[in-house]
# Entry
Amino acid sequence: MDKKRVAVFRREHFNAAHRLYNPQWDDAKNMQVFGKCSNPHYHGHNYELEIKVTGIPNAATGYVMDMKVLSDLVQEQVLARFDHKNLNLDTPEFKNLNPTAEHIAIVIYDLLRPKLDPEHDLHIRLYETPRNFVEYPA
Ligand code: NI
# Structure
């Protein structure tokens, strides 16, 4: 069974508010580009997060990685940071970064990547709505 790569997934959920906004544009232009997501008083999304870790199962455990370890990592690095937060106002990550699903996925990747085995591949899928989702790396 050696050298066979397997992907393991952890699904998590968080709620957060945001406003999509380019400070170089006026409100009218922002509304034209971002629509309701540029509402000045913010709005919330129920984000569904899928974390995919790919690697060769460990010879001793048969695990790619211990899912409890992955779960704890996501809890402390992602959920503790973003759940029930206003991304624009409450999180330094999005103080100067438009909190689109694309950018949120990249930020989550960058938070988790250094905590994982360098031999493992990481992919982030983030659902902003049941029908709209992004994946990073593409
Ligand atoms: Ni939105």
User: Anything to note?
Assistant: Residues 18, 37, 43, 45 surround nickel (II) ion (CB under 6 Å).
